[in-house]
Amino acid sequence: MLAVSIAYILAFFLTHYLFYPLQLKIIPEFDSLANLLYLPHGVRVLAAWLLGWRSVVAIAPGAFVSQNLLFEQPIWDFNFFGVFFIGIVVAPLAFSLLKFAKFDASAREENPPCWQCVMVVGIFASLLNALLANLVLGTLTIDFLGYLVGDVSGLFFLVLILMLVFRQMRAWGY
Asked: What is the DSSP string of 108-140?
């Protein structure tokens, strides 16, 4: 489970310190703090896919460290805690809500991974995340759209990278 928090921190640092500055240079007119390529959402969704609600415990330390570095606010600050809490529960909540609606995309040993299903749940989780985070932070529509685009693109690119890595590992006989 420690690996999940480490993956979250690495994804956060890549996003915040590499992709976000590039975003500012490429699209300076995009007036939002939202990252348009947010890899941590991919970590959240994949962790929830594999671990279910246990992903909350696995992600919490990494999310806390990452968010504390970004916001530099105490945990008892409502905005900090609200966004932190939403971020760690949104993916398992999305899997649970869709499973309740008879769309079960959970990882199971008897079924091969359904990456399209994981993407559907990830998009739903992103909608929940953007809506709830905007309610807590009181931000604008542009931020909602930015969070949505960033979460979905982050999940897409992380899944794509993992698919390519696993394909290469199979080709090498692992």
From this structure: -TTS---HHHHHHHHHHHHHHHHHHHHHHHT--
